[in-house]
Amino acid sequence: DVVMTQSPLSLPVTLGQPASISCRSSQSLEHSDGNTYLNWFQQRPGQPPRLLIDKVSNRDSGVPDRFSGSGSGTDFTLKISRVEAEDVGVYYCMQGTHWPPWTFGQGTKVEVK
Amino acid sequence: QVQLVESGGGAVQPGGSLRLSCAASGFTFTAYGIHWVRQAPDKGLEWVAVISHDGRNKNYADSVKGRFTISRDDSQNALYLQMNSLRTEDTAIYYCTIFSHWGLGTLVTVSS
After folding, report:
1. Residue A33: count of CB within 10 angstroms of its CB
2. Which of A32, B2, B51, B86 has the fewest CB atoms within 10 Å of its CB?
3. A101 touches chain B (CB under 8 A)
């Protein structure tokens, strides 16, 4: 199984400042079809997860452009250019290249300092 | 708009059974493989099972293999998860998802 490792696990942020979350996979997530199936999800307190980004860098519909995803191979990053109060929650990366199983990172808790 | 609505959760003793349902609407149900993902209290997300768009292929996490069965009824736009031989570690919120959309989840509590 592919192991997904996120860092940091806790991220205190200042409103208006940037934030960055790293996600590393135990093997390359580049699929033979040329795509890299790495998604990012946001889970606000008390809510289900919400897809932010799929295939490394494609923002889902309605996701603010302050969120961006990048990376390749085994190293991926989610960046928030300017953190807003509504961004508080837990962020998960997930791989869908080598399945089953689909595997998630441990989650990164973003909170305001 | 896409909606996924789970039901069937509840409290059950270890060794017991439950059947979860997921009612889908707002998208072409037969075009999608659909997953169950669970989240234990104050823990992360764990993929549980998937059924292909045509129902022919099913995959399970090792933690539930042989105990859980995923199925779908395309005439009802419904997804199911039959859970047998439940263990305390199965306690979680169970989400029905196509990853671009998630239901609100249904809580399963396994306790004596």
Report:
1. 8
2. A32
3. yes
Contacts for B38 with CB less than 8 Å, ≥ 6 apart: B45, B46, B48, B90, B92, B93, B94, B95, B108
In this prediction, residue B17 carries a pLDDT of: 98
Distances, alpha carbon A11 to alpha carbons A35, A44, A67, A110, in Å: 29, 14, 16, 5
Are the beta carbons of B99 and A96 separated by less than 8 Å?
yes
Strand order in the sheet with B68-73: B3-7, B18-25, B78-83, B68-73
B98 touches chain A (CB under 8 A): no
Q: What does residue A44 show for φ and ψ, rounded to 5 degrees?
A: -75, 155
Please give the Cα distance from A70 to A81 (Å, whole number). Answer: 13
pLDDT by residue, tens only, chain B of 112 residues: 999 999 999 999 999 999 999 999 999 999 999 999 999 999 999 999 999 999 999 999 999 999 999 999 999 999 999 999 999 999 999 999 999 999 999 999 999 9
- Distance from C-alpha of B93 to C-alpha of A16, rounded to nearest angstrom: 33
